[in-house]
Specification:
Layout (H helix, E strand, L loop, with lengths): L2 H8 L3 E2 L2 H10 L4 H10 L8 E3 L5 E3 L11 E3 L19 E3 L19 E3 L19 E3 L9 H5 L8 E3 L11 H8 L5 E2 L2 E2 L2 H44 L9 H8 L2 H6 L9 H71 L6 H97 L10 H6 L3 H71 L2 H6 L2 H8 L1
């Protein structure tokens, strides 16, 4: 062990704490006069963009949660063994964890803005847990313990990755490794900080030829499946908004048989059960798709109705706002004029009785004028607000009737289609019952005569159902009842869902308008109370009080 390593081992490992963070921020902050002001004003943690905590023997990452605005963090040359407590730093663009003792890449999921990531000189043996870092551009994992080329293949998913360093890893010592990098990571522009030339990449692709093409073909198929699944999921989200989720694409049909083991067994009767099941599935799916189409069509109609309503009410509210603004501007203008006149009267220092009496009369008149102005303004504003409230209530009533009609239309159309589905189930059950009875008869005869090789390979479940006619009849009846129950439950779910949505929407609409109306009334009263308080403050000066009649003085002082 060399002297430097021995000294390092003798140091006490530390944990990032508030003192360490504060010292680093101040040390790396502005200098001179700007630095003095920076210290005087105090640290605003959310505004710190960069931080270096290097050569501090840090063992545990902690206490960085307050640095939410951090974009660059350097924690290199420490004793860090575990990546942790970084999930708050969601704005991080660059993270340097070089020269530490990290063995596993982990806990970086929330750092999806990360572009530059450095793990040079650690103990990492596998590249993993980086899937959410879709913006990753530069990755340095040199001098680690990566020994498997699968870690290289893992990086194929990072389409924005342009620069990579894996030098010093066991994997890099393999034959044609640089060619492998060039061929299997086509998004890279630089490897080990050297530009990859077009000719080099083409030569590498040719070298790995068929294996590379096979991988690309497999990935292409996987991506196609993933995209299809994602499209289906997105469609089901939309279908859910329309209350027809998992009805089309055979979802609903398959759900009828998924947990019905008896029916599954009966469908294994060979030629006896072929034909009518496929017909049932085909007809069922046609109606199911029709139901989905109806749901999506009705969803669009509801959205259009909501948009019309919101525009109508929004326009009315904007008109009221503009009218009220003009009324208030006019009020302020008249108020300022009255206050200016009051100030002139109050500043008159002439003590003669005639002048004083005239001043008192002027103050009373201006006071009455202002009260009258406040009352008129309050009356106009309240009248307009009440008018809007009443008109909005009328519009809400019309809106409620329109939406209720749409919902009723959707419910009626859905009920009609569910009725058709039940009819299909009844027909299917009749066909299945006929087929099962015929199969039971043939099976019984074959069992009694020891003939009929076609019955030797039937499943245990089917054999159990065929042991007795009563068992078979009960199984058919239970299966039919189960299918009808699922159909009824799905119909109830749709109807309950759309009616609950409507009830909640209308309730929120009423409550929202009532709350808005109350807030508006409070704002009008509060505004005018403030104006009256200003007049009160102006008249409460000694000069103003002396010039007012006794009854007004008493009223102001209450």
């Amino acid at each position: 062990m060399d002297t430097e390593t021995a000294c390092l081992d003798l140091r006490e490992p530390g944990v990032i704490d508030e003192k360490m963070v504060n010292n680093a921020i101040i040390e790396q902050g502005p200098k001179g006069e700007e630095g003095r002001l920076f210290k005087q004003q105090g640290i605003v943690y959310e505004e710190v963009a960069q931080l270096r905590l290097e050569y501090l023997d840090i063992l545990k990452i902690d206490h960085l949660w307050m640095l939410t605005g951090l974009t660059k963090l350097q924690l290199c040359n420490n004793r860090i063994e575990k990546i942790e407590n970084l999930h708050f730093l969601v704005n991080l663009v660059e993270l340097d964890l070089s020269f530490n003792f990290i063995e596993t890449i982990e806990n970086l999921d929330s750092l999806n803005k990360l572009e530059i990531l450095t793990f040079f000189q650690n103990n990492i043996s596998e590249l993993k847990n980086l899937d959410t870092l879709t913006n990753l551009t530069i990755l340095s994992v040199g001098n680690n313990n990566i020994g498997d080329r699968n870690s290289v293949l893992y990086l194929r998913r990072f389409e924005n990755l342009k620069s990579l360093n894996l030098a010093g890893n066991p994997v890099s010592k393999g034959d044609n490794f640089v060619k492998f990098i060039m061929a299997y990571l086509p998004q890279l522009n630089y490897y080990e900080y050297r530009l990859i030339l077009y000719e080099e990449r083409e030569d590498a692709r040719e070298f790995f030829g068929n294996n590379l093409l096979k991988l690309e073909r497999e990935e292409s198929e996987t991506k196609a499946i993933f995209k299809k699944k994602k499209r289906e999921e997105e469609q089901e989200i939309l279908n859910s908004e329309a209350f027809v989720e998992y009805i089309g694409n055979n979802h609903f049909f398959k759900s009828l048989f998924e947990n019905d083991t008896d029916c599954q067994a009966l469908l294994q009767m060979g030629d006896f059960s072929s034909g009518f099941y496929e017909e049932y599935q085909k007809n069922f799916e046609e109606i199911a798709n029709e139901l989905v189409a109806l749901g999506l069509q009705q969803l669009e109609l509801r959205k259009e109705e909501i948009a019309r309503f919101e525009k109508h009410v929004g326009d009315a509210k904007r008109r009221l706002y503009e009218e009220s603004r003009k009324i208030i501007e006019n009020f302020i203008e008249q108020k300022n004029s009255i206050f200016e006149q009051l100030k002139e009267v109050l500043n008159n220092e002439d003590d003669e009785d005639d002048v004083a009496n005239e001043t008192s009369v002027s103050i009373q008149l201006l006071n009455e004028n202002f009260k009258d102005l406040c009352h008129k303004t309050w009356t106009v504003l309240m009248s307009k607000e009440l008018n809007l409230f009443e008109r909005t209530e009328d519009v809400n009533g019309t809106y409620e009737r329109s939406l209720t009609e749409l919902v009723n239309s959707f419910v009626e159309g859905s009920q009609s289609l569910f009725t058709q589905i039940r009819q299909l189930q009844n027909t299917f059950n009749e066909n299945l019952t006929d087929a099962a009875n015929k199969f039971f008869t043939n099976y019984t005869v074959a069992s009694a005569t020891k003939l009929g090789n076609e019955f030797k390979n039937i499943s245990d479940n089917l054999a159990y159902l065929l042991q007795d006619k009563e068992v078979l009849v009960n199984a058919l009846s239970a299966s039919h009842d189960y299918h009808l129950l699922l159909i009824d439950q799905r119909e109830d779910k749709l109807i309950t869902g759309v009616r609950t949505w409507l009830a909640n929407l209308l309730e929120n609409l009423v409550n929202s308008e009532i709350n808005r109306h109350r807030r508006s009334i409070m704002e009008i009263n509060h505004f005018l109370d403030i104006q009256k308080a200003e007049l009160h403050s102006l008249l409460m000066t000694p000069m103003g009080l002396n010039l007012l009649p006794k009854d007004i003085q008493d009223a102001l002082q209450m």
